[in-house]
Design goal:
Elements: H1 2-7, H2 10-24, E1 30-37, E2 44-49, E3 68-74, E4 78-89, E5 96-100, E6 121-125, E7 133-138, E8 147-152, E9 162-164, E10 177-180, E11 183-187, H3 190-194, H4 197-200, H5 215-223, E12 239-241, E13 245-250, H6 259-285, H7 295-299, H8 302-307
Parallel strand pairs: 1-13
Antiparallel strand pairs: 1-3, 2-4, 4-5, 4-6, 6-7, 7-12, 8-9, 8-13, 10-11
The structure holds 2-acetamido-2-deoxy-beta-D-glucopyranose (4 copies).
One 2-acetamido-2-deoxy-beta-D-glucopyranose (NAG) binds at residues 78, 123-125, 134, 136, 228.
């Protein structure tokens, strides 16, 4: 009786509300990461903490296409976020695993385990030098999902968006590709794929002067100039902000299928099919009728329509 009376006292309720509010509101001592999946497939974001004192409330989650989720981090947190793709739970063993970005915890949460390359990484050191947050996106360990980091409400000289927002899988050199059947799902870094000292920047290559941009890292650099593409990629800009939140967007420029696509595509198929039938009829049937037909003229109009695919 006494206890329930005590709990219901206005002052207790008030302090309970204060504590709750304090936990809910991102104050000066926390940062909010908003994970946004704009890919037209599911992404399973994961996080690895590298700071000793500050940890995250979650280290793995699922984001279906179009979904958003937030993770609140202590303001001294350091670590990385990445996206996992094609994740499944084995129906026999019950173990969770992903085709790319797998952390090997066998669960949705990575619980302190890092990603298996190739994986695009978004790296953060909150409240670092001068109280600024430092962040960068790296494809040094390869690429799997396009990522853009957007500071929200922050300020500072070098406080701008960074990332590797384009799909490098499409431009991946053949010997670095990771496939699921015929689909490229990841692009390995030259070091992990080819295991040569000059790509890994070890031995006599272990200095900014001797570790150079290779033809492989150049392909990454061209597509994503703001991202780190090889171990001593010091030419890349450093990004820092005094900010309270960051958006981490997977596939920022993914195209949505529009109504126009839905209606127009069958129409294009219909026209292409009729043009092909027209050519077959004119080339095979008309010569039989002993008429001369210049096929190059007939073939030409079909081309721009087929190029649409
Ligand atoms: C961890 O937290 C303790 C207590 O707040 C502090 O004294 C210590 O310096 C922190 N360690 C690091 C590495 O930040
Ligand atoms: C490969 O891709 C297919 C189609 O997207 C998917 O159903 C399948 O789960 C993927 N394979 C693996 C091992 O994830
Ligand atoms: C990228 O950011 C992480 C976290 O701030 C940092 O540890 C790492 O040194 C940075 N990488 C480069 C190449 O600056
Ligand atoms: C911003 O970046 C430039 C070039 O990387 C650097 O010289 C400058 O010190 C940076 N400013 C801050 C506030 O970090």
């Amino acid at each position: 009786m006494y206890l329930s009376f005590h709990l219901l006292r206005p002052t207790s309720v008030f302090s309970f509300l204060l504590v709750t509010l304090h936990l809910l509101l991102p104050g000066a001592n926390s940062a909010v990461f908003t994970l946004i999946n704009k890919c037209n497939y599911a992404v399973w974001p994961a996080a690895l903490t590298t700071s000793t004192n500050a940890t995250l409330p979650t280290t793995g989650l699922i984001l279906k296409s179009g979904k958003t989720s937030t993770v609140t981090a202590p303001d001294t947190w350091s670590g990385r976020f990445w996206g996992r793709t094609d994740c499944n739970i084995d129906s026999v063993t019950g173990k969770f695993s992903c085709l790319t970005g797998n952390c090997g915890s066998e669960k949705l949460a990575c619980n302190g385990k890092g990603p298996e390359p190739p994986t695009t990484l978004a790296q953060f050191s909150l409240s670092s030098e001068g109280g600024l947050d430092f962040y960068n996106v790296s494809v040094v360990d390869g690429f799997n999902v396009p990522i853009l980091v957007v500071p929200v409400g922050g300020s500072g000289e070098n406080c701008s968006s960074t990332g590797c927002p384009v799909d490098l899988n499409n431009e991946c050199p053949t010997n670095l590709r990771v496939y699921n059947k015929s689909k490229v799902v990841g692009c390995q870094g030259a070091c992990s794929a080819l295991k040569l000292k000059q790509f890994c920047c070890v031995g006599k290559y272990s200095s900014p002067k001797t570790c150079e941009l290779s033809s492989y890292s150049l392909a990454f650099k061209r597509a994503c100039p703001d991202a780190y593409s090889y171990p001593y990629d010091y030419g890349t800009k450093t990004f820092s902000c005094s900010s309270e939140s960051y958006n981490i967007i997977f596939c920022p420029f993914s195209k949505k299928k529009t109504l126009f696509d839905t209606l127009f595509r069958p129409f294009v198929i219909l026209i292409s099919v009729s043009v092909v039938i027209g050519i077959v009829v004119r080339c095979c049937w008309c010569p039989a009728q002993k008429q001369y037909v210049d096929t190059s003229v007939i073939v030409r109009p079909a081309r721009p329509m087929l190029v649409y695919y």
